[in-house]
UniProtKB/TrEMBL annotation:
PANTHER family linked: NITROGEN METABOLITE REPRESSION PROTEIN NMRA FAMILY MEMBER, NMRA-LIKE DOMAIN-CONTAINING PROTEIN
Pfam families, per the entry: NmrA
UniProt key word NADP: yes
Family: Belongs to the NmrA-type oxidoreductase family.
Stated name of the protein: NmrA-like domain-containing protein
Protein keywords: NADP
Organism of derivation: Lithohypha guttulata
Gene3D superfamilies: NAD(P)-binding Rossmann-like Domain
Domain NmrA-like positions: 3-168
Amino acid sequence: MPKSIAIIGITGNQGSSVALHYLSLNSAAIQSGDAPPYIICGLTRNPASPVAIHLKSQSVEIVKADLDDASMLISTLKGANLIFSVTNYWEPFFRPDCRVKAKQLGVSPRKYAYDVEYAQGRNIADAAAATVDTLDDNGFIVSTLSHATQCSNGKYRELYHFDAKADVFPELASLCTASASRRGYIFEDLGIGVSRRVSPRTLI
Ligand SMILES: NC(=O)c1ccc[n+]([C@@H]2O[C@H](COP(=O)([O-])OP(=O)(O)OC[C@H]3O[C@@H](n4cnc5c(N)ncnc54)[C@H](OP(=O)(O)O)[C@@H]3O)[C@@H](O)[C@H]2O)c1
């Protein structure tokens, strides 16, 4: 029976590399005359993007989903044996419409992005908890960072892109078995800022 792998952020740097790993395992099995051991499902807001279309052509099941939509996530992740997830700080930080919303709410763009990322993390955690019976041991993988405020004893209180990810974890631990992958700075970021995507180049 093949295992079901759900990848949040499959069109991005981290998610696409996870997809490539499982695709290579499937290819190896097929070359040996075996059935592919994994059904790979990728979540994206835009199934019509070039990366999503390319992944679909590689037998990845592409599903339209938004991390802001809690009930959609629960139904999309139902039955998964493994979930890989990322959350998104930089998009709500940079997007012009989010800047407008932050201003309307009277919060800084950083705090606004923290709130969005934290809410997305909660939605992911709730959806994983809703399917905990089908998850493998350590089958919920979360890309995260350390808690900057706590690690600096309160010296650095506005590294919201660290703290949002870390703040979801105390809640995760009580919901289901999870593994946290603390990513280092990804090489492609060097010199070009944090928001460039390399996946279209590396995948297509
Ligand atoms: N790059 C690094 O060095 C690094 C290091 C540590 C931690 N991180 C963190 O890890 C996260 C992901 O990093 P990355 O480099 O893989 O990012 P990325 O290349 O920008 O990809 C972001 C992914 O998230 C998806 N996504 C964003 N908002 C979404 C939403 N509302 N609903 C559904 N999917 C959404 C995007 O999918 P669609 O656009 O297709 O919907 C895309 O696949 C970021 O939060 C970043 O802060 C990054």
